[in-house]
Structure formats: structure tokens, C-alpha cells
Design goal:
Strand order of the largest sheet: 5-6-4-3-7-8-9
Strand content: 15-25%
Helix content: 40-55%
Structural class: alpha/beta
Radius of gyration: 20 Å
Order of helices and strands: HEHHEHEHHEEEHEHEEH
Number of helices: 9
Length: about 210
């Protein structure tokens, strides 16, 4: 793998799709697949697939195609899915609890280890066996447990302050569901912003566009 090479975010965004489709092929008992067959399945050109995978070493043989199991495993390594990622969720409301209840995260090594909130009535409650702590217990929890990712599912007004508090605790990545683009003092912290309403607006646009045809 060419770790020193800068990979475009467009390529990175496609890698989980490859991983998902290859997983489905594995479950169906498919052992090998050509870039042409994979392109038809994914609605991505065969040339694009080869270019994307060549960023990480290629993984295929001309005239032979891809070994589905091997490619699935290698893309999993590219995505860091061959290791465990411990997640905490800041905000134990409906969205935070929905994340905690989503069992498929664990299949890919994403383990939610705690939820945090400020409402006293939630203290000590369990969501699928995961404990809800008070926000003032955050520092003590992080001192005793490795945390790789913090998910923010809280009001946007408090998101920046909480995010920078997480940075102070040495948490390297933030999965941000708060409806705001975070302003962090440490630019080395990885942030993935998830704006659910933006996705709905894009969906609405495409509905309108289709109705005009």
C-alpha cells in the first residue's frame, strides 16, 4: 500500500461502497469477479474501479479479475476495519440512543462504549447494555478508557465547546451530527460532519427534478 500518496476524498467516499458490495458477493458465495461485472453491479465504470483500486496497489490480475474475499479484506484494511474503534456518544437523546442501538457498527469494529448527557434522570440508564454517564464524568471516563471517536448528537449551540473539550482529552476523531461545522483549535483532529437535513434537501431537489421530466 502506498501510504505516502495523497488519496482524493472522492476515492475515499467510494471505498465503503466497494466494501459493502464485495461483502454481499461473499455472502452469495462468489469467489471471483471482473472489474466489468463489478462495474455493472455498482454503476461505476470499470475504468474508475481500476483507477480507484490502483491507488492502494491494484489487488487484481489482468484477465483473472479480483479474488472477492482477498479484495474485501484488503479494502477493510484500507478503511481501518481490521482494528477496533471505541466510540462515545455525547448526547443521549433519540439520535444518540439510535446510534447505540445500531448493532451493525460492531460488525465493522466500531464499539460504542458509553453515552453522555446532562439530564440527571438519564444517569445510569442502559441502552442495549451501554451505560449513560453524566457529562461531568467525561474526563474520568476518558482517563480510564481508550476513546478513538466521539459522536456529537447534541444541540449545535454547545457543539464547538464540547468538541474542543474532546480535543483537550486527546480524542483523535469526531463524528459530528450537530447541525454546525465545527471550529476546532487543533486541526489534526479528524472531523466527519453528518448533516441529515442536507441529505433530505438533496433528496427533495431530485424529487422536483424528476417531476419536471
Amino acid at each position: 500500500m502506498q501510504e505516502e500518496k495523497e488519496i482524493s476524498q472522492a476515492v475515499v467516499r467510494r471505498m465503503p461502497r466497494y466494501y459493502r458490495h464485495l461483502g454481499e458477493l461473499l455472502e452469495a458465495g462468489v469467489e471471483r469477479i471482473s472489474s466489468n461485472d463489478l462495474s455493472r453491479r455498482m454503476n461505476v465504470t470499470a475504468s474508475q474501479i481500476r483507477q480507484d483500486l490502483n491507488n492502494f496497489g491494484g489487488f487484481g490480475q489482468q484477465g483473472y479479475g479480483y479474488n472477492v474475499k482477498y479484495l474485501h479484506e484488503e479494502i477493510g484494511k484500507v478503511l481501518g476495519l481490521n482494528r477496533r474503534h471505541n466510540i462515545i456518544v455525547i448526547g443521549a437523546g433519540n439520535l444518540g440512543q439510535a446510534l447505540a442501538n445500531y448493532v451493525k457498527f460492531e460488525k465493522h469494529g466500531f464499539m460504542i462504549t458509553g453515552l453522555f448527557d446532562v439530564k440527571p434522570e438519564l444517569k445510569g440508564m442502559l441502552v442495549r447494555g451501554i451505560r449513560i454517564y453524566m457529562l461531568d464524568e467525561l474526563e474520568a471516563f476518558c482517563a480510564e478508557n481508550q476513546v478513538d471517536i466521539a459522536a456529537l448528537t447534541m444541540p449545535k449551540e454547545k457543539a464547538d465547546a464540547i468538541a474542543n473539550r474532546l480535543v483537550d482529552l486527546g480524542i483523535p476523531a469526531i463524528w459530528n451530527f450537530a447541525h454546525v461545522d465545527l471550529e476546532l483549535f487543533d486541526k489534526n483532529v479528524v472531523v466527519e460532519n453528518v448533516h441529515l437535513s442536507d441529505s433530505l434537501m438533496q433528496l427533495s431537489y431530485n424529487i422536483v427534478k424528476n417531476q419536471k421530466k
